[in-house]
Design goal:
The chain has 488 residues and is α/β, with parallel strands linked by helices. It contains 15 helices and 21 strands. The strands form six sheets. A seven-stranded mixed sheet has the order 15-16-14-13-19-20-21.
């Protein structure tokens, strides 16, 4: 039996998982990380805590399974989260700005006004939004004295979380094409940083990591990784796409985590969206052409359930939301739009804010819980609907993964609203499996079609709703979205 490992550094926790060559989990360890919320619009992570949490996960697993038995290790990560550190000392110069952080809205507004950059930004496949790394880099450059000093001393490194971990493990300043494609700084065709944007905005090119293929030998270290090579790096949603075996054009998946992320493989073709979606890199094997994807991103999905728990105290644990929602027969005409930090795909409205509409004396906390769950399904429907319009095909089914897939009420409602079969896999850790398997297939020079050997269907949900009722739900959701828009 052979083995491979996966570092999964997410928005709320870090994990290290060992899989055997059949794709089964052998050992794993998880560590939550703290969310720093300086104000209503800022979300930060401590870079040292992130690295130490990853290190702890690896060392804990190593006590039960000697990781020097691994063929390879892959890294998957929360994507657009951005940080700066000293090249010489390796010390962070500020907390990481998390992808959810919206403090950079003014910077984004200014970027939209620079006419000579509009054509350059179009090469990235992304709209100008706080979601992406560029405005976080500019904020750090303009507001943090230590970053400014490091820049003047040519001692500055910027990077996403994969770059930070690679630097700490290998000493190299690198990133992969999937993470680089989320910065608003990379040309999707050339897979290079766009020099004109860097020069115009005074971002030193030498402060950015070198861009490498996703499946590539990034190096290792003896102390923590026991000389096992890191041979794959994929942003978390691309890792999930690969883990779902969506390696052919037209394959589609939706992940239900802190946010919701739907991706469809578009092969070697870059599809530019006319419906509010993102063009991005799916993955690239060293020596091969890149594969591309079309993506829809929703910022608040599982986070809305946490909001019910932590802010409203309607539930004690996140898992309690299903039972509470099931205590009523329907949503009681209550709709919830979780636009806590604006709306992402397909609306891209940074002025939107969360709304709860349709309340009456009849409404109770069960209706609110149900509306929160249903908001995840409605937002995901918008992503799939936009994808079908962009690529001109109708999906028969959708592969799903993420923590919320365990919620049967949500998955059945999702199938009803999609009007499609929804398919989950037996293994929950699809993201980690995807990057771990990618590292293993690459280092052993195996075809990517072998990814299908590692997964098997667990559960399916089929639509079971009257067409008129479905249309009424979608009509009311559309009204709720309009109430949320242009709030600020």
């Amino acid at each position: 039996m052979k083995y491979f490992g996966a570092i999964d550094q997410g928005t709320t926790s870090s994990r290290f998982i060992v899989f055997n060559s059949d794709g089964n989990i052998v050992e794993e360890y998880q560590k939550e990380i703290k969310q720093y919320l300086p104000n209503a619009i800022s979300v930060e992570h401590d870079p040292i805590e992130i690295f130490e949490s990853v290190k702890e996960c690896i060392l804990e697993v190593n006590q039960k399974f000697s990781i020097n038995q691994l063929d390879s290790i892959g890294i998957t990560n929360q994507r657009e989260t951005t940080l700066a550190w000293s090249k010489s000392s390796g010390k962070p110069l500020h907390n990481a700005l998390v992808w959810l952080d919206t403090r950079t809205q003014d910077i984004c507004d200014d970027l939209k006004q620079i006419k000579e950059l509009s054509n350059e930004f179009s090469k990235t496949g992304l709209p100008i939004a706080t979601y992406f790394s560029i405005s976080k880099i500019l904020w750090l450059l303009r507001n943090v004295k230590d970053v400014q000093e490091a820049k003047s001393n040519n001692d500055l490194c910027f990077g996403t979380i994969d770059s930070w971990l690679l630097f700490k493990f290998t000493g190299k300043h690198a990133t992969d094409v999937t993470n680089a494609s989320r910065t608003l700084l990379m040309d999707l065709n050339s897979l290079e940083w766009i020099d004109y944007i860097l020069e115009k905005l005074d971002i030193p090119r030498e402060s950015l990591p070198s861009i490498k293929p996703s499946m590539y030998n990034y190096g290792t270290n003896k102390e923590i990784l026991k000389n096992v090579p890191i041979t794959a790096v994929l942003g978390d949603q691309q890792a999930s796409l690969f883990g779902q075996n969506c390696i052919n054009p037209g394959d589609v998946k939706n992940t239900y985590g802190t946010g919701c992320f739907a991706l469809t493989n578009t092969g070697t073709k870059i599809v530019h969206s006319n419906n509010g979606l993102l063009s991005t890199v799916a993955y690239q094997r060293d020596g091969c052409n890149p594969q591309y994807a079309l993506e829809g991103s929703v910022s608040i999905a599982g986070a809305a359930v946490q909001w019910l728990r932590d802010n409203l105290n309607i539930i004690n644990e996140s898992k309690d939301v299903e039972a509470l929602a099931l205590s009523v027969k329907d949503n009681g005409d209550v709709y919830f739009v979780p636009a806590f930090s604006g709306l992402f795909s397909p609306h891209w409205d940074e002025t939107a804010r969360g709304v709860l509409v349709g309340l009456s004396r009849y409404s109770n906390k069960s209706h609110i819980a149900r509306a929160v769950l249903e908001s995840v399904a409605f937002q995901s429907y918008e992503l799939l609907d936009s994808m079908e319009k962009d690529i001109g095909i109708k999906f028969d089914s959708v592969n799903v993964d993420g923590g919320m897939v365990n919620n049967n009420l949500l998955m059945q409602f999702q199938s009803d609203i999609f009007d499609k079969k929804v398919i989950s896999q037996k293994i929950n850790e699809i993201t980690a499996l995807g990057v771990g398997a990618a590292s293993y297939l690459f280092i052993n020079d195996l075809p990517f079609k072998n990814m299908g050997n590692y997964i098997s269907q667990s559960k399916t949900w089929n639509p079971n709703i009257d067409a008129n009722q479905r249309e009424n739900y979608l009509f009311k959701w559309s009204k709720a979205i309009n109430k949320a828009r242009q709030w600020t």
